[in-house]
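Same chain as my last thread, 132 residues:
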Amino acid sequence: MNTDPIADFLTRVRNASSAGLKIVEIPGSNVKRAMTEILFDQGFILNFKFEEDNKQGIIKIALKYNDSTKVPAITKIQRASRPGLRKYSASNSMPRVLNGLGVSIVSTSKGVVTGKQATQMNVGGEVLCYVY
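reply #2:
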């Protein structure tokens, strides 16, 4: 039984990229789908596919690596807010990840967006994770 599905998502991606795997399969949910789309839009993964089954669905993610050095595009993916310690941020104090080179993923009232998008929409929310 998994008590923190977002941490499971991040751990599966982290382990697959450090092991050099090309594809990782993750049980699906709406939040995980939105996080996957953000990772794709920001250029951290090559591609993704949602497969429906009789239960919750499966997300297949194709990880991205540098062609010459085989270094993964995701250097670090870290959970910010946890079930035991939630981290919220206002729109004017969104965290900057690696001085603007990384991305923070935030769950807001307008959906799951990046920290920069949340600042532009002038909404705060729960900081889910940092990616760089």
